[in-house]
Amino acid sequence: MGTTGARRRGQDERVKTKASIGVDIGGTGTKAAVVSEDGKILARAYKATDVHAGTKSIIDSVEDLLAQAAELEVEIQAVGVGAAGFINAATGTITFAPNLVYDDPKVAEALRGRTGLAVTVDNDANAAAWGEYEHGAGRGSEYVAYISMGTGVGSGFIMEGRLVRGLTGAGAEMGHTVIDAYGAQCKCGLRGCLEQYASGQAITRMAKEAVAKDPGSSILAFAGSVDAIGGEHVAKAARQYDDAARAVLRRSGRALGIGLSNIANIFDPEVIVLGGGVVAAGEAFLGPARDELAHMTEQQRRRPIRLAVSELKDDAGIIGAAALGRHEATSPITTRADRGPGSP
């Protein structure tokens, strides 16, 4: 009896690694991982997203990782999900998603019902911002702005160690702040949004316009056809000192710099972290952004703002979602809207 008890205690003592699961769901793929308390990825899962059943895609990924965690003798404490769109983080409900249909918009409730774990659902940029704040380029800062430039432009802001979500969870959307009132039409309904100049889709649009004026640009040679042009072809041409490509990235970078100046005026962050695939374009893009921000900051006699490139890179979303899930499990989200009118 004593030997059996000792063996059980030994088995229990081995199950000591505590972790959470982070999920980053996109229009094409759902990335997920088991993440330790110190931000290390212990196991991964990737599945193609069912665009008509987003919630099912999340549940499938989480159940896959729960099985892996059991084999690794890892104790899962919470689940965090980062999703594109408008999220009611207090209830874990998807209120609007541009590229996905969620078979059950009450994602947190559905996941809790399947796993019995604490679940947090938030905007994907908020999750990535939290990842950089806890484990990446924002470590040690209490005022962190995160801007992600991929297909679109996402953002997340942390002030005094708390995410800025706004009344309904749709706050801090810098991608849809206007930098040119008469500029390009945005899908959101406005004109001249930052997203129309500093995102991957914007660079592609501007590159196609540039090639129409300069068919000899190496952008076209790298892409093979106008329809095939993408941001990676622009970046590659810019590295070969192609004038049209460098002009596109300079215009995009300057637009980003204006957006960063707006962030400085509104949030006064200690550090702005830049993430997303567009950052890979390098100095042809980042240099003009940095110069424009420095110029505008100097004109206003503001203190210099530190810019940093994401340390977590493509894993910012899953590491951040896991860390946010663990954090919110002990500090539940509440908003005045949830508490009702007249509440403090």
What attributes does this structure have?
344 residues; alpha/beta; Nucleotidyltransferase, domain 5; 2 domains; five-stranded mixed β-sheet; disordered C terminus
CATH superfamily heading of the largest domain: ATPase, nucleotide binding domain
Strands in their spatial order, largest beta sheet: 3-2-1-4-7
Cα Rg: 22 Å
What is the CA-CA span between the terminal residues?
A: 58 Å
What is the averaged pLDDT score? 91
Could you give the count of β-strands? 12
Overall 3D geometry? globular
How many helices in DSSP terms?
Answer: 12
Low-pLDDT residue spans: 336-344
Q: For this structure, what is the CATH class of the largest domain?
A: Alpha Beta
Characterize the largest beta sheet: strand count, sense, and whether it forms a barrel: 5 strands, mixed
User: Which structural class matches the secondary elements?
Assistant: alpha/beta
> Secondary-structure element sequence?
HEEEHEEEHEHEEEHHHHHEHEHH
Multimeric state = single chain
- CATH architecture assignment name of the largest domain: 2-Layer Sandwich
Name the beta content range. Answer: 15-25%
| CATH topology type of the largest domain | Nucleotidyltransferase, domain 5
Total of domains: 2
